[in-house]
Amino acid sequence: MAAAESYPDDLLYHREHDWARVEDGEAVLGVTWYAQDALGELVHYEPPEVGSTVNQDDAYGEVESVKAVSDIVSPLSGEVLEVNAKVVDEPETVNEDPYGDGWLVRIRLSDPSEADALLDADAYRAFVAEQ
Predict the structure, then answer these.
(1) Distance between CA atoms of 55 and 35, rounded to whole angstroms?
(2) Max intra-chain CA distance, the chain
(3) Which domains are assigned to the chain?
């Protein structure tokens, strides 16, 4: 069962339809409701390695759906501290709960000021409305 459309106010959003929950020098990253809806049911998640570095605006992994294979673009830069093993085993978790159990990675931020370039929920909703 896919989640209902939502864009939580406590997250920051990237124009490539990824989100970040920033707290205490770390961030949890995932894909937005819009992204998972456009992709359709996810059947595979190819995560980065723990300890690797992700860079803002660069691809750091892939998701495969019944429709296509798509890069996941990082909204922020940092070192990968954790990969969500549940999503590796059950990629459809992203469709069911993109902002909860469907998170993808947790990183230690290398440049917290990059968050200033991201959209708040209202700006992201307006951006999605133009798509």
Answers:
(1) 20
(2) 37
(3) 12-129 (2.40.50.100)
